[in-house]
C-alpha cells in the first residue's frame, strides 16, 4: 500500500560501525543470521537510505560498550553535518565516570549516554552499580539517558524515572516487546509496564526497533500487530513524548529502512499533521537539544 510522503524528519536512533575496530562483541560475523549487518556501515551508506525516506538529521547511538567507540562516533559527527547528536557509552562503574562524561561533553555533539542494560544479567544494575551522583551530574551538564531495556526492566526503570525527575530519559525501542514467541500474556505484561511509565513518569519513548523483535513470519502482518499497540502508546505518552527512529542498520535484519519507513507511514497516517510532525521531528529536536545545532 502506498501512502503520502511524510514530512522530513529526524532519525532519532541509528548506528554506524567499523568492524575492524574489534569491539562489537555482540555481533558474530560467522553467524548467518547476522549476515545483513555484519559489515562496515558508514555515513555514505546512511545517506542513501536517508534520502529515500526523506530523513534529514540523525542521532547516532552507541553499539559497543567501549569509550573508544564513543570517540569514534564523535569523530564522525565532526565530519558529517547531518549527525547532530551522539549518544555514547561510559563505564559507569568507574569512580572517575564523571570525568569521562565531562571529557566527552567538550564535544557539543555529545548529548547523552546509553549503558547496554539489555546485555547485563542483573536487571537492577542501573540502581545498584553507578554512583548516585552520576545522574545529577548528567542533568547538570544538560545530558540525557537512553534506556536500552527489555520488558524485565520495566518495574526498575519506572522507579528509576521517579527517583530522577530532573534527568531526561528515553526508553529505546519501546522496551523491546517480545513478539517473536507469540505469547500474548507477555505482550500484555509489556504493555501494562510501558503504559505505567507513560502515565506515571516523565520518560519519553522511541518508536523504533519493533520489527526486529518479531519472528520472520510475523513481519508481513506487522501493521495488524503494531497498530493497536502504537495507538495506545501515542495516547498515553502523547506525540510530544514519542520520537521516531530507524534503528538502522539493525533494521536490515527485518526488512530494512524502506519497510520500516512504509510501516511508519501507515501507523501514523490517521494522526493530524502536528502530531505527525512531533513524532517525526519536534520531539527528538527538543529532547536532544538540537535546535540550531550546526544549522
H and E string? EHEHEHEHHEHEHEHEHH
Number of strands: 8
The CATH class is identified as Alpha Beta
Helix content percent band: 25-40%
Number of domains: 1
What's the average pLDDT?
A: 94
- Categorize the overall geometry: globular
CATH architecture: Alpha-Beta Barrel
User: What is the fold named in CATH at topology level?
Assistant: TIM Barrel
The gyration radius over C-alpha positions equals: 18 Å
Structural class: alpha/beta
What is the strand arrangement across the widest sheet?
1-2-3-4-5-6-7-8
The unreliable regions are none
CATH superfamily caption: Metal-dependent hydrolases
Largest sheet: 8 strands, parallel
| Share of β-strand residues | 5-15%
Amino- and carboxy-terminal Cα gap: 35 Å
**How many DSSP H or I helices?**
10
Walkthrough of the structure:
The chain has helices spanning 43-52, 67-79, 97-105, 125-128, 133-140, 154-163, 184-200, 222-237, 257-268, 273-287, and strands at 9-14, 55-61, 83-88, 110-113, 144-147, 169-171, 204-207, 242-244. The protein is α/β, with parallel strands linked by helices and 295 residues long. It has a single domain (9-287), classed as TIM Barrel, CATH 3.20.20.140. The protein has an eight-stranded parallel beta sheet with strand order 1-2-3-4-5-6-7-8. Helix 6 runs parallel beside helix 7 and helix 7 (184-200) runs parallel beside helix 8 (222-237). The chain starts with 8 loop residues before the first strand and ends in an 8-residue tail after the last helix.
